[in-house]
Amino acid sequence: MADPGKDDELAEISTFGYERARDELVNVVKMLEQGGLDLDESLALWERGEALATRCEEHLAGARQRVENALSRTDLETDE
């Protein structure tokens, strides 16, 4: 059975900016590396980390697309 609180937490990540997602991902990794968590806590952190990493990738893909679009416009302008 799904945990509604966890689902809400993971859905909230979709509203994070790049820096917030990155900073929280760094904290998740530190906590996992320190160890000492039980299996359920570790899995929950892992899932949060995956969601945060995905959010960072979305931001980076969007930024990459914006750069490519800007370069394309520049190329078109210089060809004219």
User: How many beta-strand elements?
Assistant: 0
Largest sheet: none
Question: How many helices in DSSP terms?
Answer: 3
What do the pLDDT scores average to?
90
Order of helices and strands: HHH
Shape: elongated
Radius of gyration: 18 Å
Q: Approximately how much beta-strand content do the residues carry? A: under 5%
Gap between N and C termini? 60 Å
Provide the structure class.
mainly alpha
Question: Portion of residues in helices?
Answer: over 70%
Low-confidence stretches: none
Keywords: Cytoplasm, Exonuclease, Hydrolase, Nuclease
Function: Bidirectionally degrades single-stranded DNA into large acid-insoluble oligonucleotides, which are then degraded further into small acid-soluble oligonucleotides.
InterPro entries: Exonuc_VII_S, Exonuc_VII_ssu_sf
GO molecular function, one term: exodeoxyribonuclease VII activity
Topology record:
Elements: H1 4-12, H2 18-34, H3 39-79
Helix pairs in contact: 2-3
Subunit structure: Heterooligomer composed of large and small subunits.
EC number: 3.1.11.6
Main location: cytoplasm
Your description of this structure?
Its EC number is 3.1.11.6. InterPro entries: Exonuc_VII_S, Exonuc_VII_ssu_sf. It catalyses: Exonucleolytic cleavage in either 5'- to 3'- or 3'- to 5'-direction to yield nucleoside 5'-phosphates. Its main location: cytoplasm. By secondary structure, the protein is mainly α. The protein is 84% helix and 0% strand. It has helices spanning 4-12, 18-34, 39-79. The chain is elongated.
